Structure formats: structure tokens, C-alpha cells
Amino acid sequence: MSATSSAATPDHDLVLVVDFGAQYAQLIARRVREARVYSEIVPHTVPVAEMLARKPKAIILSGGPSSVYAEGAPGIDQALFEAGTPVFGMCYGFQLMAQGLGGEVAHTGAREYGRTPVTIAEPGTLLAGVPVEHNVWMSHGDSVAQAPEGFTVLASTADTPVAAFENVDRGFAGVQWHPEVLHSEHGQEILEHFLHDIAGCRQTWTMVNIVEEQVELIREQVGEGRAICALSGGVDSAVAAAIVQRAIGDRLTCVYVDHGMMRAGETAQVKRDFEEVFDSLDVVDAEERFLDALAGVTDPETKRKIIGREFIRTFEAAQVRVFGDAHGTGYLVQGTLYPDVVESGGGAGTSNIKSHHNVGGLPDDLDFELIEPLRTLFKDEVRAVGEQLGLPDTMVWRQPFPGPGLGIRIIGEVTRERLDILRQADLIAREELTRSGLDREIWQMPVVLLADVRSVGVQGDGRTYGHPVVLRPVTSEDAMTADWARLPYEVMERISTRITNEVAEINRVTIDITSKPPGTIEWE
User: In CA terms, which of 14, 131, 302, 463 is 20 to 30 Å from 199?
Assistant: First the structure.
């Protein structure tokens, strides 16, 4: 059995999240897993018969941007409500349920967006133990005017007469708001009431189970073969490699390529941490090769392609060292996560490497079979697995760092001198972030060197003509969307003062306050 087919989890109840174009579909799936129930996302275009064939314990209908009345608005096959499978509707999904089961959805003319007070008239099972009045996160223009026959209306708002309902005997429930977002008070509690008390889902999705199941799958897949893993130093590749090592021991070789664009002290730290954990670590010093190839290049996309190409060549050499001339016996470990799978169009596995995979865009002609032990997991679950495996905090809580490294944080040509300047500034920013206790609150804080820009400054009573740097602190849950982090003023002040005092070539520190979208996290 291929590990890429391990999304099938017969030992766990399955909850399918039907995505109607919601910006929160992944968040719903994560919240279900936080309730210790396995979940997957499926697009609303998947036939209901195909969904039911997977024998889900429950189905959740997500929100979406459409009106149920709009021409071409996504619908749901009524067979879903006749199958005996518990269903939970949120926002647009709530209205689809109401309409599909004989209730009434109306254009009331009243819209509710953002934080909204809700009042519980009858708690039932879904809202049991929840305060009678609390705030929820709304985002809708239509409203359910009348619940379907046999349903109990549980809650309302000033503008929405039916804001929650349930029919426990049939396993149906729904809310007009978004219980999955943090702004909805008691949202997780309400979701768990549906999953545990109405749908009867078993709470078996734990980090211990994940590791044990993957180890068994990998042993079956690899047999007596050997595997290679390209370690970036990040949590995804580290946890993937740790699981595979637990399965096959010293038949795994980890390869870490230092392309000369790592952060200050990073290669030494990665080597130190990883040699404590992994039996076989191959560290490749490829700085000269990469920087020679990047000489004179300023276009961001060209930089990325060059770095990807040189990574491939370096990795090919590592492949020969590990496997010799043997073909067809090699396995490649990758830290592919569930968001990667969703964004690339689904969960279908593949045994040959495609250019969209993680490791620098490896080409089709590298003859490996993939091992992807994390492809059903979200980033927060990966960190939990890493802790379960006993990996050091420096690995588990390392902030995401792009494969091309500092090469895409220098606007302009990448040179050793510019890398050294940026390394100093980046180190100061990271030290102050750690000192302030913000490492786990900030998803990522790139420092960008505007190497092709100079600005006038005054330092030591003299005129300077130095480079600006940009701090890019962001908060995120999965990097698909991000908000700029509101760093305390005193933290920004310390970072700015230290950088301009300690890095002679930099005379100006700015901060990027753009969310994603419209901006990306990295500048290039």
C-alpha cells in the first residue's frame, strides 16, 4: 500500500466538509479534528452518491458567498437528507438545509456581517450549556424565515428569526453563523455537541494514533527498501523524516543542502539538532555553486528557477551517493500537508514526482516513489505530532522559512555581502521577537533587504546613504490567508534601534502592514 493512499482511515469515523466556496472550509475541517474526529474537505460538485459511498459518520455543509436564490447558486442533492447520515449546516449550508427540507429562506432586506448578538430560546442538544446571550460571527444577506417541519428553533437575532435549529431524531442541526471562527463565542463547544452528541462520532483522532498508523503503512510500503529525505530544517520535513525513521530506522538518509542563503547560525543549529535525532544526516555545502549561478540576476522568478535548478542538481548527486546506480528501489520522503493536497485539487496520490511537489520542484525523471506521511494533516497537527515524537522545540516551533531562503528576501542581486547584511538584521529581529515572548504568536516575520534602494540618513552627525529593510510580521493559521501582526511599539523600537546601530549598511527600518490577500507573505 502506498503511503500516498493513507488518507483512507478505516479506524476513524469520517466527517466530510462540503465546500460551497467558503473562505473558512479548511478551518471547519481543522475544528472537527480539534474535536478528535477525522475530517476531509470535498467540493460541492462531488455527487452525493460518491460522498455517501465513503460512509461518512456525518456531513457538514459549509458557508459560501452565494444566495440560495441566485441563478446558478450551488445546491445539494436532496438524496443527502434521505440517507440517514447526520448533517450540520453553517451559514449558506444552513439555508440550503432549511430550503431542502421544506423550510423557508427569505430576502428580509436585513444583512448581518461581523460580530452579532444571538439569543437562545431553547438550547436543545446543540446549544446545551451555552449562555443564553452571546456573540457570534455572521456573514449573510438572506435569512431562514421558517424552520422545516419537525425542527426545533433554538436561537434568533434581532434580524434573523431562525438562527439555529435541530431535529435530533434525524441527526440534523444547523446555525446561521460561523461557529468555526474564533470570533464566534462557544463555537467549538457547539460543533462538538453536533459531532459527539447528535452524530455520535468517536473521538479517536489523536496524535498517538496518527504516528502508529503511519509507521505501519510505511513499513508495508517500503519493505526492505531505502529512503531519502530532503531536510529543509523546517517542521514539515523534520516530522515526516522522524516518522519514517521510526518505521525503517537507518535505511533512511536525510539530506540537508546549505545553499548559502540560510539565516545566521541556522545550518549549525539544524546540524546539531538533527544529528541528535536522525541516524544518517548528509550535510551538503553548496553555497559557492548557488551564489555563482545567481550572480547578476535580479528578476524574482528567474532567481527562484535558478535556485530550484541548482537544488535539483545537488539532490541528484546526493541520490547517487545514497542509492548508487540502483533504480526503482528508492523512496523519497516529503512533508506534503493537507492544505497542499486541497490546493492542488484533491487527495489523489501519485507514485512519481511532479513539479508541484515540495522539494524544489524535482523533475519527473528522478525515479522515486513518494512517502508522504503528513498529507492528511494541518500544520498545527504536524507540530503536535512533532512534540509527540519528542523532537526539540527548535524544530517543532521554527517559523516557516522559504526554500529559496534569504535569496527571495533581497530585492535585487543576491551577493555574499548583501546576504551578510540581511543575516545581521534578521538575527536582531528574531532575537527581539524571542525576547518579547512572541515567537508562537507570530506565524512568520520575514526581514526584506531593499538592496537596490538607498535612502538618506543621519548617523553619528554624518550623512549616510544606506539601505532600508522591511519587517513583515504576520499572523496566520495555515498561510493561505494572513494578517499583519500588531507588534507592540516597544518591540518595534528595539528592533529598529538595534538594526540601525549594529548594521552599518542599514539606516532605515520600515514595517509592512498589508494583509494576504492582497499581498503575499514573502516579497518575491
Answer: 131
- Candidates 459, 453, 445; CA nearest to 502 is 459
Model pTM? 0.71
CA torsion angle 353 356 361 366 (round to 10): 10
Q: Are 285 and 382 in contact (CB under 8 A)?
A: no
Indicate if 91 belongs to the active site: yes
Distance from C-alpha of 91 to C-alpha of 25, rounded to nearest angstrom: 12
**Nine-digit cell string for 17:** 466538509
Pick the catalytic residue: 91, 201, 229, 254? Answer: 91
Alpha helix locations (H) across 451-520?
Answer: 489-502
Q: Is 266 a catalytic residue?
A: no
What is the rounded distance in angstroms from the CA atom of residue 232 to the CA atom of residue 380? 18
Cβ 253 vs Cβ 227: under 8 Å: yes
Kindly report the three-state secondary structure assignment for every residue of 79-116. HHHHCCCCEEEECHHHHHHHHHCCCEEECCCCCEEEEE
Segment 397-415 mean pLDDT: 90
Is 180 a residue of the active site? yes
Cis before 517 (ω within 30): yes
pLDDT tens-digit readout, 77-98: 899 999 999 999 998 899 999 9
Question: What's the length of the chain?
Answer: 524
Pairing status of strand 87-90 against strand 58-61: parallel
Catalytic residue among 178, 259, 357, 467: 178
Q: Side chain identity at 96, as an amino acid letter?
A: L
Residue with grid cell 525513521, as numbered in its chain? 245
Reported confidence tier of residue 367, pLDDT bands at 50, 70, 90: low
> Which whole-number Å values give the CA distances from 401 to 211, 468, 476, in the listed order?
25, 21, 14
